[in-house]
């Protein structure tokens, strides 16, 4: 009788690694078996890909909705709704209550109120807590074996990469996403400032803090990536793969090395939740503010209902991104799509381009709309569309002590 070969997945963990695709050769005549090949995967990778995402075989196999993710996504959108339905001022209070419920009364003694323009945003712990946790993770990360290799990989420049267009595209994408440029978020939040507020000073502070935070977080990530590479006996370049799962691989690996890991894990994912909510409700605030200002008579008195409808529709769209795997999530990227070693078919590339252009075409589409709506000839349209609105010009003159007559064109 011939020998039997089988492939299995070993569910147990050894030294932070999980055994995958174990090729077992068995001889039933002699009751012997041997493992002829063995592939290992880090426990964090295994938990993300096999348990949370349940990656399918390909983009054509969408699979069912991950109901655990659907429930958490619904919870996040409900929290987002209650964060913005009463305006930006109430949002900071919502974050404060979340932290107070988790941390307790000692937190109440350290909260303080920050004045943002002409309203008080009660941000309390939200802005400072991520820095405290990142500092703790950095202190622990640099003491792990292999951390020096990861940091050396992070700070060692590879100037040849500057010749690659993808590097510049990724850099621009990061800047636009990080600062929220072109999304209306900064305009919406800036509308709460006083007219005489020093926006140049605010811009310099925001840019400096944002870039410094990115560099600081890079040290935290790559110290842990070096540790993961040391564990897996792989080069740092192979472990430091970009993607949405990096925050769920590098940071949890560092948290597990801390005393009282479950407590730190809860605080870490609480931090991720609040950071994600910050980005989510700021983006929603930009859209909602623009719509309400465009049609104030229709939407201002029904703002809570309008926000609820927008959040519900956004939740329905988000359900397509929480099926088995992250293939549909990656289709949103406008660059040629690739997840690990899986190559997407041509039609998914086409779908990705259509999805990306759907947001980009809003800007020229609105330009064409407002151009067709504006009366007059070519010169008159240009003169009307590039001028400052009368109410803004009048307010600026009033603040400067000048009272010129306002004439309509």
From TrEMBL:
Its main location: membrane. One of its GO terms (cellular component) is plasma membrane. The chain crosses the membrane at residues 65-84, 118-139, 171-192, 204-229, 249-275, 305-330, 350-372. Keywords: Membrane, Metal-binding, Sodium, Symport, Transmembrane, Transmembrane helix, Transport. Na(+) binds at residues 178, 210, 278-279. It is a multi-pass membrane protein. It comes from the Eukaryota. It is found in: Membrane. GO terms for molecular function: gamma-aminobutyric acid:sodium:chloride symporter activity; metal ion binding. Belongs to the sodium:neurotransmitter symporter (SNF) (TC 2.A.22) family. This is Uncharacterized protein. It comes from Timema cristinae. The lineage of its organism: Eukaryota, Metazoa, Ecdysozoa, Arthropoda, Hexapoda.
């Amino acid at each position: 009788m011939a020998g039997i070969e089988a492939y299995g997945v070993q569910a147990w963990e050894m030294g932070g690694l999980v055994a995958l695709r174990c090729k077992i050769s068995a001889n039933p005549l002699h009751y012997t078996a041997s493992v002829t090949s063995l592939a290992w995967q880090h426990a964090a990778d295994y938990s993300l890909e096999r348990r949370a995402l349940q990656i399918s075989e390909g983009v054509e196999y969408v699979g069912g909705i991950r109901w655990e993710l659907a429930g958490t996504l619904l919870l996040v959108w409900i929290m987002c709704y209650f964060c913005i339905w009463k305006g930006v001022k109430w949002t900071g209070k919502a974050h404060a209550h979340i932290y107070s419920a988790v941390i307790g009364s000692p937190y109440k003694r350290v909260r303080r109120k920050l004045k943002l323009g002409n309203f008080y945003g009660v941000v309390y712990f939200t802005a400072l807590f991520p820095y405290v946790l990142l500092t703790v993770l950095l202190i622990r990360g640099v003491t792990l074996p292999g951390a020096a290799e990861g940091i050396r990989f992070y700070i060692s420049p590879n100037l040849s990469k500057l010749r690659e267009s993808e590097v510049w595209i990724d850099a621009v994408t990061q800047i636009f996403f990080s600062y929220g440029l072109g999304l209306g978020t900064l305009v919406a939040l800036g509308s709460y400032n006083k007219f005489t507020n020093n926006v140049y000073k605010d811009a310099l502070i925001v840019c400096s803090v944002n870039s410094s935070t990115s560099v600081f977080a890079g040290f935290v990530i790559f110290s842990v990536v070096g540790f993961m590479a040391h564990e897996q006996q792989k080069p740092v370049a192979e472990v430091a793969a970009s993607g949405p799962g990096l925050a769920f691989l590098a940071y949890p690996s560092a948290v597990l090395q801390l005393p009282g890991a479950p407590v730190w894990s809860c605080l870490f994912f609480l931090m991720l939740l609040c950071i994600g909510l910050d980005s989510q409700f700021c983006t929603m605030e930009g859209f909602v503010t623009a719509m309400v200002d465009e049609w104030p008579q229709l939407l201002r008195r029904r703002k809570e209902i309008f926000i609820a409808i927008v959040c519900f529709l956004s939740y329905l769209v988000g359900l397509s991104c929480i099926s088995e795997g992250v293939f549909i999530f990656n289709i949103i990227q406008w660059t040629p799509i690739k997840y690990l070693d899986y190559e997407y078919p041509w039609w998914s590339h086409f779908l990705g381009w259509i999805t990306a252009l759907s947001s980009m075409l809003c800007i020229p589409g609105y330009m064409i709309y407002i151009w067709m709506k504006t009366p007059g000839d070519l010169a008159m349209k240009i003169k009307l569309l590039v001028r400052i609105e009368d109410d803004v010009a009048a307010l600026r003159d009033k603040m400067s002590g000048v009272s010129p007559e306002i004439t309509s064109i």
